[in-house]
Write a structure and sequence with these properties.
Blueprint (H helix, E strand, L loop, with lengths): L13 E3 L9 E3 L14 H12 L3 H12 L4 H5 L6 E2 L4 E4 L10 E4 L2 H17 L21 H8 L12 H8 L1
Antiparallel strand pairs: 1-2, 3-4, 4-5
Helix pairs in contact: 2-4
Length: 177
């Protein structure tokens, strides 16, 4: 190929016959396909992320901490309810209807996140004492309404969180698995 002698690579990358995947119709190639590894921030990049997060409201700090500690996807994070928390065991339940594979799981979170969470719950009580969605909007227009997926995307990956531009809840999940 490099010398212009051939148009295609003679080394196979594997073949799959449609409809025969589970009956041995899949062959592995000689050369494996390359997969891109997730981005892992350096120590300085983590410090930058934490410095920016320190200036954020308590709700955003708790959301970032839970997303990182529990490896939550955006939808899983925004759909957490107050009854999904178990502060005594520092765990939270991710309901099956919100997970990608439709399997419920119980995941732990760290002691520092627990402290942040208890501070947020005290703050949340000033807006609403009702059970239901854990994260509520603090805007004047949607005050005490459930936080939407897009609000979290704008607050965590938006222009005022520049160190997070390469990071996402999905990346955090991939690097912690």
């Amino acid at each position: 190929m490099e010398d212009g002698q051939r148009d295609s690579n003679p080394v196979g990358r594997g073949r799959s016959t449609p409809g025969r995947r589970h009956r041995g119709g899949h062959e592995r190639g000689l050369v494996p396909r390359l997969t891109k590894l997730p981005w892992i921030p350096t120590e300085q990049q983590w410090l930058d992320i934490l410095a920016v997060a320190a200036a954020e409201p308590v709700r955003n700090r708790v959301m970032l901490a839970l997303a990182y500690d529990a490896a939550l996807r955006r939808e899983e994070l925004c759909s957490l309810r107050t009854d999904d928390l178990d502060p005594a065991h520092r765990t939270l339940r991710v309901r099956a209807e919100m997970t990608k594979n439709r399997l419920e799981r119980v995941v732990p979170y760290s002691a520092p996140t627990g402290v942040l969470l208890s501070g947020y719950l005290a703050h949340r009580a000033t807006s609403s004492r009702a059970r239901g969605p854990l994260f509520l909007s603090e805007s004047r227009r949607n005050h005490a309404q459930p936080l939407s997926l897009w609000t979290w995307s704008r607050s965590s990956a938006g222009s005022h969180w520049p160190p997070m531009s390469r990071d996402s809840p999905r990346t955090r999940r991939d690097t912690s698995a």
